Amino acid sequence: MDLAAPPETLLARADALRDGGDWAAAEPFYRAYLQARPGHWQIHVQLGHAVKETGDPEAALDHYRRAAELAPDDPDPPLQESHALRLLGRPREAAARMLAASRLDPGSALLRREVLLARHRLASPPDAPPAPLPLPPEGPPM
After folding, report:
1. Which is nearest to 1 in space by CA: 39, 45, 23, 32?
2. How many whole angstroms from its chain centre is CA 91?
């Protein structure tokens, strides 16, 4: 297929390749589509997925961040950025982006759950050493 095809054709081809699990083949079609429709934030997210799935989560961040610029009130771009940051071993940043997503959609049970699971990454560790754990009771259980 020609990458100079009409945008709708490019998008249909990219989505079909994505649906078939061929992210690497979908990527150039998403890029070509975005040349014609640069403001389509959802496709910036899809391009981020394609880049991430082909092994470059760091580069995917740029696409998720572009989507967030275009759709600052939608929770999906920071959610996707959070997933990429986790893959990169940056859990504190990932948790912060998940929190940002949940603030955009406070009614989302999924986002609330994700924030609760990662909230320990948002807090600074205490300065004082932890108190020792109590010793187990002696003798047989009652």
Report:
1. 32
2. 12
